[in-house]
Specification:
Layout lengths: L22 H14 L5 H13 L1 H8 L2 H5 L37 H9 L3
Helix pairs in contact: 1-2, 1-3, 2-3
């Protein structure tokens, strides 16, 4: 339901923790995608190939595309996206990994905006 006071824009936050079982397969797929990207200038392609070859997290970031997450959702258009990847130490039993809890990344001001439908 949309009212004049309600923004049409929604921020969707997603956090994923992935376990990589085959680094070579991830790197190979990223290199395949790079090879098929005909719009990528040669200099950028060379830099991207080096990055995905040296770091599996970079390869994974290259393979994950937020547009793919919402491409088939009717009535929405992706306006902006940013994402990154990094290697982490993961302990699923640690309270630090409670995805339902407030991790403090976003302050109270953002939380208030979310309740108001602004953020």
């Amino acid at each position: 339901m949309s009212t004049p006071e309600t923004s049409r824009f929604v921020r969707l936050r997603v956090e994923l923790v992935l376990e990589i079982h085959d680094e070579d397969a991830v790197t190979k797929r990223a290199l395949q995608r790079l090879a098929g990207d005909t719009d990528l200038p040669d200099e950028e392609r060379t830099q991207a190939e080096a990055a995905v070859t040296e770091d599996t997290a970079e390869a994974l970031a290259y393979l994950v595309d937020p547009f793919d997450l919402v491409n088939d959702v009717p009535g929405v258009e992706l306006q902006q996206a940013s994402w990154s990847s990094e290697r982490i130490d993961y302990d699923p039993d640690s309270p630090d990994w409670d995805l339902d809890g407030d991790d403090g990344e976003y302050g109270d001001e953002d939380d208030a905006d979310d309740r108001d439908g602004i953020g």
